[in-house]
Amino acid sequence: MGTRLVAAGAAVLTVGAGLGLRAVAAGSAAKYGGDALYTLLLVALAVLVAPRIRPLVAAGSALALSWAVEFLQLSHVPAELAARSTAARLVLGSTFNAPDLFWYAVGAAVGGLVHGAVGSALSRRPVPYPPHPLHQGE
Fold first, then answer.
1. How many other C-beta atoms are found inside a 10 Å radius of the C-beta of residue 21?
2. Of 1, 5, 40, 11, whose CA–CA distance to 122 is shortest?
3. How far apart are CA 51 and CA 39, in angstroms?
C-alpha cells in the first residue's frame, strides 16, 4: 500500500473521528479534541500532497498553518466569513482562543509520530522480485 493511499485513509479516518467526537462529546473534550484532530488532518493532507515529506516537516507545516489560522482569528475576517459560510466556519473558526494553540501542537506531535512510524513500516516491507528462471517450477 502506498504512502498516498495511507495518507488518504488517515485523512478520512481523522474526519470521521472528528465527526464522531462531536456526536458523543461536548464542551472542552469536543473542542480541544477537535483542535488536535484539525492539525492531525493537516499532517495527513501534507503527506497526501507530498508523500516523501519528512515527519517533522509535515508536523511543523501543519502546526504553522493551524497557528496562522488561529492568529488570523484576532482579526474580524474569519468571523465575517464564518457568518456567511459553514465551510469557512469549520476551516477558519471565528474567535481566538489561546489554549487552542497547545492542542494544535498535540495534534501535530501525534501526526508526526504516526507519520514517522508508518513511513518506517512502509519502507521496511519486502520488495517483490520476479522468480529466478531456474526456480520457476518450485
1. 17
2. 1
3. 17
